[in-house]
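Thread: "does anyone have the structure for this chain?"

Original post by V.I.:
We have the sequence but no experimental structure in hand. Need at least a predicted one for the grant figures.
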Amino acid sequence: MKKQDALSIGEIISQFIAENKLEQKLDETQVMRLWPRIAGETVNAYTQSMHVHNRTLYVQLSSAVLRNELMMLRNDLLRRFNDEFGHPVIDNIIFR
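Reply from O.Q.:
Generated one for you, tokens below.
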């Protein structure tokens, strides 16, 4: 292999992710990691669990009052997530 044919490790990883169609799955994982920052630490304290399935974020909360409040803020939370990524990552949030 010639020196000019060498790829950086970042290029190799990006190529692997693209070839294996892992972009959406990585974005979904990143959504859960960003939840405390997007929703806030107080909301995160009441979050029991969450997962993403078919571009929908499912959030289990321990407070019914908070769940009702977040339902009204759903569109704002979706906008924040999608703005963070620069492209649509999730289409819906279901609070349970």
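V.I.: this helps a lot. The longest strand covers residues 47-53.
O.Q.: and Residues 60 and 96 are 5 Å apart (CA to CA).
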